[in-house]
Design goal:
By secondary structure, the chain is mostly helical. The chain has a domain of 225 residues: MetI-like fold (Orthogonal Bundle), CATH 1.10.3720.10. It has 14 helices and no strands. The longest helix has 38 residues. It is globular and about 85 Å long. About 6% of the residues have low confidence.
Length: 355
């Protein structure tokens, strides 16, 4: 297993480099000029210097190599510095090490050029770090809720297949598959926010939690977007769980376990469930990157200031550095969680041997 993991990690390096090259070349074909929003009164030589500052004066391959250097070398350095400052700020480092932190900053001889957004003229990763907490609060919680609901529904529906519960679950999951978020979102807003007045219709991203009342309001404003996203997650994972359970319930090892006198709960929840989780793990693991990618439609419907809204805003503004960075981060997460899913296969099924 360790050999397989190391081999996959090494293989992921050229894979990610190839993905980054494809993303870069495709976005180079997209129309858009970062100087389009600059006032006409700005002299052309000033515009040219601004273009060079953004890295647009060099050939294509130089721009690509520069972006790779910025993404993998420069940005991690600033991330480490930011984490160090946060550690000092919260008192996790002794005061005697405070000067060492700032001395490390002064040791930089050449200022590093970061990936700059064309739209905001600020560092892309700074904006991404600001948006991630909002996305994780809403999309991450919705994904967890969807999984916790979907797995029991799928297991019980397979065990009691063609029952009333199974048919009801099938009907609900079909609704979750069929109705898009841009319909369920406004529908829930009309019912619970406008008609009943129970929940807020817009997510307040500036809200801070400092007491019980503010925490209660935070939970209330998260209910509607979490319901919309959890419905889709539940519909998808529960159907995979049901199909996988049905496939394993008819296997010979299940009949053997029952013939040995094992309890039905042990047969279903230990033997059958463990083998049935193998294909479901793939669905769950590959769905995790979508959390960090945000929910574009849902975030725009409820006004969640997250990664999804940031991506759609960058697309409309032709902000190529922002779009490329977000897309490549999403690709890294997919490769990483795909590796985690492959490793979990061996944990769930001892018959699988990668070495």
């Amino acid at each position: 297993m360790l050999t397989f993991t190391i081999r996959r990690l090494i293989l992921s390096v050229p894979t990610l480099l190839f993905i980054s090259l494809i993303i870069f070349m495709l976005l180079q074909l997209a129309p858009g000029d970062p100087m389009a929003q600059v006032p006409l009164t700005v002299p052309p030589e000033v515009k040219q210097k601004m273009r060079e500052a953004l890295g647009l004066g060099a050939p294509i391959y130089i721009q690509y190599l520069k972006w790779l250097y910025q993404f993998f070398i420069v940005e991690p350095q600033f991330l480490i510095d930011w984490m160090t400052r946060e550690t000092v700020l919260f008192g996790w480092l002794p005061d005697t090490q405070l000067s060492m932190v700032y001395d490390a900053d002064l040791q930089r001889l050449v200022p590093q050029q970061r990936v700059i957004s064309w739209q905001t003229r600020s560092a892309v990763m700074d904006i991404v770090i600001q948006r991630i907490p909002q996305t994780l609060w809403v999309v991450g919680l919705a994904y967890i809720v969807g999984i916790l609901i979907a797995l029991p529904i799928g297991i019980y529906s397979a065990y009691k297949h063609y029952s009333v519960f199974d048919q009801t679950g099938t009907f609900v999951t079909m609704i979750g598959f069929s109705i898009p978020p841009f319909f369920t979102g406004p529908l829930l807003i009309v019912i619970f926010a406008v008609t009943l007045g129970w929940l807020p219709s817009i997510y307040d991203t500036t809200h801070t939690v400092n007491d019980w009342a503010s925490f209660k309001y935070q939970m209330q404003q998260m209910v509607l977007p979490v319901m919309v996203l959890a419905l889709q997650t539940t519909a998808q994972i529960s159907r995979f769980m049901r199909a996988s359970m049905l496939d394993n319930l008819n296997q010979d090892y299940v009949r053997t376990a029952r013939a040995k006198g094992l309890k039905e709960s042990v047969v279903v929840l230990v033997h059958v469930l463990r083998n049935s989780m193998i294909p479901v793990i793939t669905v769950i693991a590959l769905g995790v990157p979508s959390i960090f990618g945000g929910a574009i439609i849902t975030e725009n419907v409820f006004g969640v200031n997250g990664i999804g809204q940031l991506l759609i805003t960058a697309l409309f503004a032709n902000d190529i550095p922002m779009v490329m960075t977000l897309t490549f981060i999403f690709a890294i997460l997919i490769v990483f969680f795909n590796l985690i899913a492959d490793v979990l296969y061996g944990v769930l099924d001892p018959r699988i041997r990668y070495d």
